[in-house]
Structures are given as C-alpha cells and as structure tokens.
Specification:
The protein is an alpha/beta fold. The protein has 17 helices and twelve strands. The protein folds into two domains: 163 residues, Aspartate Aminotransferase, domain 1 (Alpha-Beta Complex); 228 residues, 3-Layer(aba) Sandwich (Aspartate Aminotransferase, domain 2), CATH 3.40.640. The strands form three sheets. It has a seven-stranded mixed beta sheet with strand order 2-8-7-6-5-3-4, with helices on both faces. It has a three-stranded antiparallel beta sheet with strand order 9-12-11, covered by helices on one side. A two-stranded parallel ribbon has the order 1-10. α5 packs across α9 and α15 packs across α17. The two termini are 29 Å apart. The mean pLDDT is 96. The structure holds pyridoxal-5'-phosphate.
Length: 438
C-alpha cells in the first residue's frame, strides 16, 4: 500500500509559494533576489485595524467563536456587500473563512460531483484548476489571450457551456492578467447564464481585488445582474485591498442560508473558526472611515508603479506588455525574449520527460532567478491545461519602486545574454535539473 492516498495525485499547488525553495537556494548561493513572485502588498496592515485586534486580544476575546464568523463581522460584510454591489444580503448568507482561498475548495466540495464540468479562466489563479482536478471534475479552461486584452465575451462563454456544466468561475479584477470585466461584459455573461444554464449551476465570482482598480474604474460584480444573486457565490476578503495577507481574513456570500450552512459545516470540519479578535478588525476595515484613505494610498502607489513598469518592460527587446486595469500584476508576453535567448531551441533539445516539466517561459523564469536574481512566475503557473505555446511571465508590482527599477534593469541585461542562457541550461541540466525545474 502506498503511504499517500491516491487522491493527492490530483491536488495541484500555487507556484508563487513553491518557488520559495528556489529563492532560498539562490539566497544561500549569495544572490540578492528581487521578488516579483508573491502577490502580497508591500505595506503594513493599517494601524487603526491593528489596534482593534490588539485591544480585542487584550480584552480576552481570543476563544472559539461562531464557525460562520462573529455576527458583527458578518453584518459588516453584508452592509459592505449591499453598498458595493447594490444587492441586499442578510448575515445568514455570509461565511467567514481564513482568507479568500478556502471558498474555492469549499465551492468545489459543495457543488461539484465527479464528471461535472467546471469552467474557469486561464490564465487564472492556479487553485481553480487544482481543485477542479482534485474533486474529479472535468476542467474546462476559458482561454484568455492578450490580443483580446485578456478579455472574453458572452459568446466565448456560451461556446463552453454544456449539459454537464456545474460551476463557472469568474475573477475580476484578474490575477494574473490585471483584466477587468466591464458592466456591459458582465451583463452579456449574465444573459448567457440565464439562457443556457440550469438553476442549479453556480457562478463563483472571485472578487479579492475589488478595491484595486485604476483609471477611475469602479468595481463591478456579476451578482448585480438579474437572476445572478440566486446563483452566485461571491468571495473576497482583506488580503489584497487592506494589505492583510497574513491575517487570513476572507468571506463568501452564498445564494441561500442553506448553502451558507454547508460552508459553515466545512469550516467546522477543518478550521473550527477564524480567530474572533481578527474578525473584529475585519469589521472595522469596512466600518471605520480611516480605511478609505489607507486603501486609496496603496492603490495610488500601485498605479504609479504600473505606469512606470509597463513602458519600461515594453522597452526591453522581446517583451510586450499590456496596461493592467486592476490588481497589482503585470503579465508581459515574453515569447520574443524566449526567441532571442534561444529558449525555444533549448526547450526542443530537452529530453521528453524534461519538456513535460517546463516550458520555454518556465526556463526563462528560472534563468532570470538563478542567474539574475529576479523571481517571476511563468504562464504555466496560472493553469497548465491548454496553455501550450503561450509564453508570459507574471510580475507582482507589490514591490518598492527601487526594487522594480533594479528588477527591470536586470531583465534588460539578461535579454542580451543568450550565451549565459545556454550555459545555464547546460550547467543546471548536468546537475540533474535542480535549478531548471521548480
Ligand atoms: N483569489 C485570487 C484571484 C488570488 O489572487 C488570491 C491570492 O493571491 C486568492 C484568491 C487568495 O487570497 P487569500 O490570501 O485571501 O486567501
């Protein structure tokens, strides 16, 4: 009998975390690594929220609490939801989770049977594809391309919907593309769902970047469209907009109290509850007027960095980068750079087993990390199925301006180092591929 259960073969991962071992190896070898890999704001959590949590802790509110979340936090979430989406919701439809990641798996466990189809954006957050496969569902990637601004319309979605579709995942603003779905695009998507999907099909709307939009755009949600509140699970939280990634504060609003009770039951089975003193600060994030200024300051910093890095990357030979409309990532097409460095040739010469473990952009990613100390994420880290032949890198701009400048300057230097690339592939290959494959 094998030690690890068979089902674990199907559980994927999030390479942004996994790359940590490679980064540590580089640091141990003496490299100074600029980290464009993790999607974590480089700001401290807001002081007025830290204070609320510390006071609650000092007052002893540190025991178990309601597994669905403390009522004042669920009320604050419901009020925030109504204010920002224009849809009334009662606290019995809200479940607090440790971050916005758990509701992805909860949704798959709650709604999806083996053999059901799940439509999800690709490139997209890798945990979607991971969970779809883990529950034995059929992954149906909705492939987004840069020639269409990483956008899609109602017809693209309609072409993927079948009798077996059970969940449709949306993410706007998007990780990794920075794409944002407009109100009229969402209206078209909602129309297709009303026309083509049975009432038991669920939409999973991942809105974790709801606060981070540029150029005067306002957050739009599918749930605001006719027929959607009764089908949509909306998930969001405090990690990105309030710079609270390590707090693990997230939530989901479910279509009915009965469905919320299932999410609560999963919480009971796995985490029991989210710490109550953190939830008190979570409520203050929505209720204290000081929050708006803190969020605006961070969004303005992301905008300034975006406006600097996009032209700077476009100036690197072989790189083509679109201007993201939201979130804090840029997602340049690096196929020209792969070409210049000979990555396609080197990739073609790898043994077949090695080719299955990487892509040309993946080799470029590791070259930039191990030889130039620049940590990025390759396209395959955001959904593997159907991603062949697409060579992109994701870079998080949740980094100080100095690091962003130094990072781009290193990429520019690397772009002229075809000999170094060939040497890197040979040297790492001779070591068994240690640095070549994450
Ligand atoms: N959804 C998307 C699209 C994300 O990018 C992330 C984090 O990177 C999450 C969910 C998870 O957020 P959290 O850290 O709150 O669990």
């Amino acid at each position: 009998m094998a030690v690890i259960a068979r089902r674990m073969r199907h559980l994927g991962t999030e390479n942004a975390f996994k790359l940590g071992d490679d980064i540590q190896r580089c640091v141990d070898r003496g490299l100074d690594v600029i980290r464009f890999n993790l999607g974590a704001p480089d700001f401290n959590s807001p002081p007025h929220l830290n204070r609320v949590a510390m006071e609650a802790l000092d007052a002893g509110r540190a025991g178990y609490c309601d597994p669905a979340g403390i009522l004042p936090f669920r009320e604050a979430i419901a009020a925030h939801f109504t204010r920002t989406r224009g849809v009334e919701v009662t606290p019995d439809r809200v479940v607090v989770t440790p971050g916005a990641k758990p509701p992805i798996g909860y949704t798959m466990q709650t709604y999806v049977n083996e053999g059901d189809e799940v439509i999800y954006p690709s490139p997209g957050f890798p945990i979607y594809e991971s969970w779809v496969q883990f529950v034995g569902a059929v992954p149906v990637p909705l492939l987004l391309t840069d020639d269409r601004d990483f956008s899609f319309d109602a017809d693209d979605l309609a072409a993927l919907i079948t009798e077996r579709t059970k969940v449709i995942i949306l993410c706007s603003p998007s990780n990794p593309t920075g794409g944002v779905l407009s109100r009229s695009e969402l209206a078209g998507i909602a129309r297709v769902i009303r026309e083509r999907c049975r009432p038991d099909v669920r939409i999973y709307s991942d809105e974790i970047y709801e606060q981070i939009l540029f150029d005067g755009l306002e957050h739009e949600s599918i749930v605001a469209h006719r027929g959607m509140p009764e089908r949509t699970v909306v998930a969001s939280g405090h990690s990105k907009g309030f710079a609270m990634t390590g707090w693990r504060l997230g939530w989901a609003v479910l279509p009915t109290p009965e469905e919320a009770a299932v999410f609560k039951r999963i919480n009971i089975n796995i985490v029991s509850c989210v710490p109550p003193f953190l939830q008190e600060a979570g409520a203050a994030a929505y209720e204290d007027p000081a929050s708006a200024g803190e969020v605006a300051r961070m969004v303005e910093a992301f905008r300034r960095r975006r406006d600097w890095i996009v032209p700077a990357l476009n100036d690197v030979p072989g790189v083509r980068c679109l201007m993201p409309k939201g979130a804090f990532y840029v997602f340049p097409d690096v196929s020209g750079l792969c070409e210049r460095l000979g990555a396609y040739r080197e990739y073609a010469e790898l043994a077949e087993a090695a080719r299955c473990r990487t892509t040309p952009a993946g080799m470029l990613q590791m070259f930039l990390l191990y030889r130039y100390g620049v940590a990025t994420m390759d396209r395959a880290s955001f959904g593997r199925i159907g991603a062949e032949g697409q060579d992109f890198l994701r870079m998080s701009i949740a980094n100080g301006m100095d690091d962003i400048r130094r990072g781009v300057s290193r990429i520019r230097e690397a772009a002229g180092d075809a000999d170094g690339f060939a040497d890197f592939v040979r040297a790492e290959g001779a070591k068994g591929g240690e640095g070549l494959f994450s």
